[in-house]
Write a structure and sequence with these properties.
By secondary structure, the chain is of the alpha+beta class. A hairpin with a 5-residue loop joins strand 3 and strand 4. Helix 4 packs parallel to helix 7. The two termini are 25 Å apart. The structure holds glutathione. Glutathione (GSH) binds next to helix 1, helix 3 and helix 5.
Amino acid sequence: MKLYDYFRSSAAYRVRIALALKGLAPAREFVPLRRGVQRSDDYLKLNPQGLVPALLLDDGQVLTQSLAILEYLDETHPSPALLPPGAAARARVRAIALAIACDIHPLDNLRVLDYLTGTLGVSDQARDGWYRYWIDVGFEALERQLASDPATGRHCHGDAPTLADVCLVPQMANARRFHVDLAPYPTLVRIDAACNAIVAFADAAPARQPDAE
Ligand SMILES: N[C@@H](CCC(=O)N[C@@H](CS)C(=O)NCC(=O)O)C(=O)O
């Protein structure tokens, strides 16, 4: 397997965490997003969306979309499981993961931010305000959801990491990078700390990647 990765990509960070939790260490190729290599002909042959991550399998198939990759890894390497037993519990975990991956993260993606500043002529300050705004909208709901639900434990669901934690931790890192005030989100902060105490999470952090600038 080979992971197409970028240190600051939170979608790739999710996959790095899952790989590490499952004890997998595939080859990696770094795609420097700031230089636009994700839009090169060679990369578009792998992922026509021009986004990282992509996972090249040993048989030549290429998987894209981090959540699809996470579920593939969970199906092919079931231990430790990233989804809990029980259909309703799995739906809860997926809902938390999707709230982050579908409703927060895409609004703050590099190409969206570049469109704001480049095409729409928005100032850097307004762009950063946009970034923080969409994290706050998503985190306010997540905090309410997690704080009030007895299914929340040391982690987003119970006491073991799941797909939800794998999505939460990179989004928390993004929030910190853009100086989002995390004081209103004590449950998210607590779960993030519990996750980062696990080596697989800590080692997947952007600052620990070989391509970190
Ligand atoms: N939904 C996709 C999102 C992938 C994504 O947005 N990747 C970002 C980095 S986190 C990217 O490659 N951005 C390049 C760009 O915006 O040009 C997934 O979960 O894999």
